[in-house]
Amino acid sequence: MSCIIGIDLGTTNSCMSISEGGNAIVIQTGEGPRVMPSVVAFTPAGDKLVGIVAKRQAITNPKDTITSIKRLMGRKYEELEKETFNVSYDIIPNDKGDAVVKIGDGRTFSPQEISSMILQKMKYRAEEYLGEEVTDVVVTVPAHFNEIQRKATKAACTIAGLNVKRVLNEPTAAALAFTDAVERRKIAVFDFGGGTFDISVLQVVNGIFEVKATTGNTQLGGDDFDACLVDWIMDEFKREKGIDLREDPVAPQRVREAAERAKCELSTALETSINLPFIASSDQGPVHLEMSITRGIFEGLIRDMVESTRPLCKQVLKDAGITHEDLETVVLVGGSTRIPMVRQLVEEAFLQEPVHSVNPDEVVAMGAAIAGSVVSGQRKDLVLLDVTSLTMGVETLGGVMAPIIAKNSPLPIKRSKMFTTAVDNQQVVGIHVLQGERDLAEDNRSLARFELVGINPAPRGVPRVEVSFSIDANGILFVNAKDAVTGKHQEMTVNPSGGLSDEDIRELIRDARQSRESDRDRIKLIENRNVADQLIYEATKMIKTSSDRLDRESREDLESALSELRTARDGTDIVSIEKAEKNLSIVMHTVRNIMNMVDTLDEKDSSTDVSTLDQENGIN
Ligand code: AMP
Predict the structure, then answer these.
(1) Is the peptide bond before 360 cis (omega within 30 degrees of 0)?
(2) Measuring CA to CA, which residue among 454, 443, 453, 366 is closest to residue 399?
(3) 101-152 pLDDT, tens per residue?
(4) Rounded to an integer, what distance in angstroms lies between the CA atom of residue 392 and that of residue 146?
(5) Do 586 and 546 contact (CB within 8 A), yes or no?
(6) Shortest CA distance to 308 belongs to which of 226, 217, 222, 223?
(7) 134 CB less than 6 Å from ligand 1?
(8) Mind telling me the catalytic residues?
């Protein structure tokens, strides 16, 4: 069996890993950092950008730069209306009421499609790294994701040409990256990312992982810290300069980027500065934003939000039926756990220091890769017990949900419950299948509806209808409703694809397959242009700053190679760009050597001068 890659498809960043000899190794995304921003952009030139290149151009192209797509996966538009959602692009309902993205030219994309673009790039990177086609994947989702969101994630993988071997809860993946097989352990996973906060308690017994309890806040993350800091910066700027940057079309995005950078710096430094030249203009000319911010100020801004996670830590222990003394390990996941104040809270809440040995950005992907090695049979010392993430049940009289399968039940599972009719002579009962932890049906997610007809007329409360739920190892739910008197029954398979029909998915796979080759070329072109831009910048700087040290021939060589690369960079021929890049690199290297040689000779000359002088002065 070929390698199964583990993918953490994150709200802010995504990461992938493979298992080599049982150990998880993170695969570089090819852009330097080991994680890839989960960002897709559509440029005015008609390009589709994914990852760091998409993130970089967000300032100038906010409407067509799609971030945080994970928050839209498998969601209805009306659900999102109740949430604060800090993105610059448009979200609209499609004809089924699902949330979709609308870009400037009027095209719409389902969240599955956008996610598939991120996944496709990761697949491509993994293939480059491994030198073989990659088809199988273990993908992770938050523990609180419902069936529809899970299926939407699966659909995104399918569109990207990936075959999902397992959809794994993120905390389970994090725990897997830490735990030796045969250990018996209770682990808390504190996951604080860009958009969400999750806290879970897992129990590992003889290699079997079980999520005992999970809670969190789907509306809290590092993005909220950024937003607070942005507000503070803008208020300060307004107070000092009398200019409201919120009214500017571009400035807020620049401030947001600078705020995030400052936030990250404050995780290690006690003070940092923010410099944004030419952020605004006044009658006196351009106005620059220059201010410093201390960790103390930042902590004051985020304190309430960080503190709001403390009672949830208590809650999760209570739900899992354990105390902090039973807890062997606390694992940190997500970029926001780098904030010292967050780490301190974790330590206080669990009365133990969290483990720091694995990078919080990579731990989930690494766990997914380990899960991949379990699924492929490479590792036989672990068992991955899938559990239901949320309670499943049916709606009963008064809109109340009656649970049939409790959350965290190991799969596969089958459970039944008897129901009866609500009115006299009722011949039809509606089966409304629900998922969620709330008491009222309307607060839970509706998965499906169907009817059982032909019940014998009888006074209410007499007929007996048995509703059975069974979920197979792949998480597919089969529902059966049977009239115990007549034996009549009705059944259905609940396999939601997160808002897309099978035909939709098939069509998207066809499209994605067709565009895959051209996408690869586009990615290569964009990367080469990035390298070219860097070289052009360095060569231009060399000419400018070393003009007095450059001889005429070197300068001409540099200028000619530079101009060749500039021309190639503006074209679309990758081979020409690569050739021109190589040529300019060689010229720069040679010129640097010449300059160094001249410097050395000059030094020698001047040292000779000195000794001569010394001799003249009779020091020697
Ligand atoms: P994730 O969703 O796990 O990729 O986490 C992304 C979030 O972590 C973003 O809000 C980042 O700004 C934040 N983040 C990343 N590195 C740091 C850091 N060194 N200090 C504070 N926040 C960080």
Answers:
(1) no
(2) 443
(3) 999 999 999 999 999 999 999 999 999 899 999 999 999 998 878 888 988 9
(4) 10
(5) no
(6) 217
(7) no
(8) 8, 70, 170, 191
